[in-house]
Write a structure and sequence with these properties.
Shape: rod-shaped
Helix content: over 70%
Order of helices and strands: HHHHHHH
Radius of gyration: 23 Å
Number of strands: 0
Number of helices: 7
Structural class: mainly alpha
Largest sheet: none
Length: 105
């Protein structure tokens, strides 16, 4: 980001670039993250034979905490503006002359 600033990128434009870089991974994590946790529970409860341990006629049904999953789905994308602001503050502290001289990212 600092290199782009040396090429004339303004503060508002830098924030938009940072948001564009950080939004896709946050959305993928929010949507795709809970699925690997829910899917194995559904596939392993039947073959594990827990109905023998619990004394039930059928195997126990997994209870998915949908409210927690929805909270994760909302919080991950909502954290993007906070991270963008923190990154903008960190990049603003770097002097552009130092970035040009040293080549820091």
């Amino acid at each position: 980001m600092s290199r782009l600033r040396t090429l004339g990128l303004r503060t508002g434009e830098a924030r938009r670039v940072a948001a564009g870089e950080l939004s896709p991974p946050a959305l993928v994590a929010a949507v795709g993250g809970p699925l690997p946790g829910v899917r194995p529970a559904r596939f392993t409860l039947g073959p594990s034979g827990l109905h023998l341990l619990t004394g039930q006629a059928d195997g126990p049904v997994p209870v998915v905490p949908w409210a927690s999953i929805a909270l994760v789905g909302v919080l991950f994308p909502a954290m993007v503006p906070v991270v963008v602001a923190a990154e903008a503050a960190a990049r603003r502290r770097k002097r552009l002359a130092e970035v040009l001289r040293v080549g820091g990212a």
